[in-house]
Amino acid sequence: MVSRAFVLLALVCTVALGRAEAADRPYLFTAEEPRLRALIANGDAKADNFLHWMDVVAGDRAAFAYTPGWWLAMAAWLNDDAAMKQLVHAEVMAEVNAHLGGDDGHGDIFLHVHDRMLGIPGCVDLMYDTFSNSERTAIADWVNGTLDNWNEENMGFWPYDDPLNNYWQNGFLAHVIAGIATKGYNPRADEWLAKAGSMYVKFRTACNPPIWNGLVIAEGNGYSNFVDNALWAMDLHDATQGSTWFADSNVDCDRWLDVLRFLTRPDPSRFFHVGSQPGSPWAPVTTVSSTFWHHLIAKAGDTASARYAKAVLEAGLPGNQPERDRTFAEFYWSTSAVATVARSTIPDRMLVAPIPGAGLIGLRSAAGFQPDAIAALVFSNLCGGGGASSGPARFSHAHPDAPGFQWAKGGDWLVTDPDAFTHGGISGEHVGSAFANIVTLAGDPGARDDSLFPQISFAEDRTSGAIPHVYLHIDAQPFWNAASTYRREYVWLDDLRVVAIFDHVVAPQAKTWRLHIPAAATISGSRVDYSIAGNSVTVRDLLASSGSVWASDNLTDDGTTVADVWRLSQTSTASDFRSLKIIDVDGRVASAVLTSGSGWYQADVVIDGMARALRFYDDGTHALITGDGADTSPPAISGVSTSPAATTATISWTTNETADAQVEYGATAAYGASATADEPLGIVHHVELTGLTEATTYHFRVHSTDAAGNAAVSSDNVFTTADATPPVITTPASAAASTTTASLAVAAIDNGGGALSYTWSLASGPAGVIFSGNADTSAGAIATVAHAGTYVFTVTVADPSGNSISASTDGLVFAAVPTTVTIAETAPRVAPGADVHLHATASDQFGDNIAGATIAWSITAGGGTIDPYGIYTAPADSGTATVTASCGAASTEVDVSIRLTADGHDDGHGNDGGGGCGLGGLVGLLAAAVAAGLYRRRGR
Prior knowledge:
Blueprint: H1 4-23, H2 33-41, H3 45-59, H4 69-79, H5 82-98, H6 107-111, H7 113-119, H8 121-126, H9 133-156, H10 166-181, H11 189-206, H12 220-241, H13 245-248, H14 253-262, H15 290-300, H16 304-316, H17 327-332, E1 350-353, E2 360-364, E3 374-379, E4 405-409, E5 412-415, E6 439-441, E7 455-462, E8 469-475, E9 485-493, E10 498-506, E11 511-517, E12 522-524, E13 527-532, E14 535-544, E15 551-554, E16 566-572, E17 576-585, E18 589-597, E19 600-607, E20 610-617, E21 624-626, E22 637-644, E23 649-659, E24 662-666, E25 673-676, E26 682-689, E27 697-705, E28 711-713, E29 717-720, E30 728-737, E31 741-749, E32 757-764, E33 770-772, E34 781-784, E35 789-798, E36 804-808, E37 812-814, E38 820-823, E39 829-830, E40 835-837, E41 840-843, E42 856-861, E43 865-866, E44 871-873, E45 879-887, E46 890-898, H18 919-939
Parallel strand pairs: 39-46
Antiparallel strand pairs: 1-2, 2-3, 3-4, 4-5, 6-11, 7-8, 8-9, 9-10, 10-17, 11-16, 12-13, 13-14, 14-17, 15-16, 18-19, 19-20, 20-21, 22-23, 23-26, 24-25, 24-27, 27-28, 27-29, 30-31, 31-34, 32-35, 33-34, 35-36, 35-37, 38-41, 40-44, 42-45, 43-44, 45-46
Helix pairs in contact: 4-5, 7-10, 9-10, 10-11, 10-12, 12-15, 14-15, 14-16, 15-16
């Protein structure tokens, strides 16, 4: 028979092992715990905001039903909030009990399996002790059934086992979560972790040449959070398993942040739409994924790209996403370690991200992220791979497959490509072209070769050249091999306010040149004019092989979009098709005419009084951009401003034309030093001055010279650098005590010479200190304390610039000085020869009782005796005695009456008034004696 002791020991061991396992939880987030708790302990604003919103959500769960339960679980874990844990526990078990054995089917359940894993085993991991063994068993069954379903659906649901697809990326994260978070109670946890390992190999392989040249974007900012799930899967595995998946995957966070920045319109709260949901209401403006941005910034660290991205993100989020919807990302992927810079300092002009195919080309005017800036996005790639082993061509959410050309000013889109507002989206089949460009081909697009890609022939930023421009040449024929020639060329002029587009397509199908615009247009012959949000846009058709008549229709009429979108189009049946269009914003082009010769077509345009000749060649050679108009006008300088720091200053200004930037500066108007901006010619200028002396006034003037050599100079200006040096304490902080106050003193000096302020505070010691003469320019102060104890005072000395230094005094002891003695018995009486116990307490100068104070007892009048414990023994005769209690210099006295009571009985100790002793009196006397003896022994 097994002994009871053995059974008890086994039970204890089982409980101990269970607790040890739970103590290590959460497995998913243990590595992050010190960092997250430090953010909370340090009062990080984003941490406080997250916890605040979770309290709000928990207080009205029905109103915030969309908030993920695992966010609440995270907050409950960090705050050890039992009520919040029980709320999440109930939600988890309700979901598991509603789908015993796991989820099945596809659609959202299949797509968002990662959310399901975070919401079920992720919550269990964070709140392990709130679930019973039987509940964890049911949860393990749910996890295993759900992932079994995902693996079955993945092989039969579009787009099959493709690591570059968002369905697959979500599944990758789900397997990592399940494999890590269910350890210890799920017998298949290791199976899911092993599956995640094989998925990682596929992901890493797919994201590197020759399949894919690095991750770039996943259908715009809205879908990029799914790619981020794959990044997080690698992060979580690395943190918990000691792997190096993220580093080995070759993900370049800085490069990715650059791409995201160029996907942002000049208004940071607006983003270019890149994606396969063109008919949706949000097609013109895709919502930013705050998770993706924050994660990349945190992973990149304090790099230039991370700083620029943080500036754009912080400017754009308030108008793009409700605060409560981004609190987790802002807290978990904290960007507090990354410096914040002004958006006006971001050096954006042109970005080329070569992925398989033509890739992404982002253009931004010199104004950067400003209301009047212009930005453009050209993306001429659709597909990747294909073949029997990987299913059909990868028209997936992981691929940047939509826009050929988009153009925005401020927060408004001005023009966009055909595929952004059509039925098809993924492959654009309903416009007859899988190549996202403005020229589309009629007929079935099946003649394309999905193993090939459009190619970038030239992508050049020539904004610092004699004729400032950007040139882009794309050859789509390798992909669209139904055509023997399929090329597009762009020339951007006038700081992106003018663009020339030349197309040459040779193919038997009919061709349509399309352009989508946000407002109804006025068509006059070959010219189209429209206005949007105060911006005028003109489209000039200089060359079309045939069918040059414009057609215009509103896509809301056929249900394609929910907002008004007008489609301009020209259709040509010519087999050899050429098109040359000039588009300009705000009437920059005064005139544009076509000239031609053998094998070439030229647009002669006049922009702001300057003549430009743009020659394009039939054979696809590099376009020729020249100018024959003399520019003799210097730039007009305006808006000169300064942003001084302690040893640096940024000087900013604008010019009415592209020009360079130089600053002369010095202690006087003679200057003596200069600095030049390391940037291409532009209209918005920033020059940083370094090596300055703090708290010093400088004179400066700015210079700008345009491409023609015309120079302009501003008038003299001044700025003063900041004082960044804190005061110096010359005499240590000190304090001298009286009985209730401390005289505080310190001496300090400052390099700036301004008046210093002194603020005293309590560093340690009892509460209730009152300071007088504090927080002003007087170095000393008086501290009035409220209790005895040891006090340390801190003084903070600040200069007028806000620089400060603090110092503390040594510990200052305020001893308790007895000032009052109080005897509890106000009119004690005692029978002759009997005892009475007197009690006294002492109070200090603050009115507080002195614990353990020594009371000295004495008789100052009358007879009797009193011992050190306050027990007074009366003489045999009646009378009055005066007893004095003393503590230090304080004392008090009380008169003790020695007499029998009026009824002839004793005064509490058994002596009767007549002195006789019957049996009752004897018994009472003995009882009183015993009591007195016991009382005396207890008192002593």
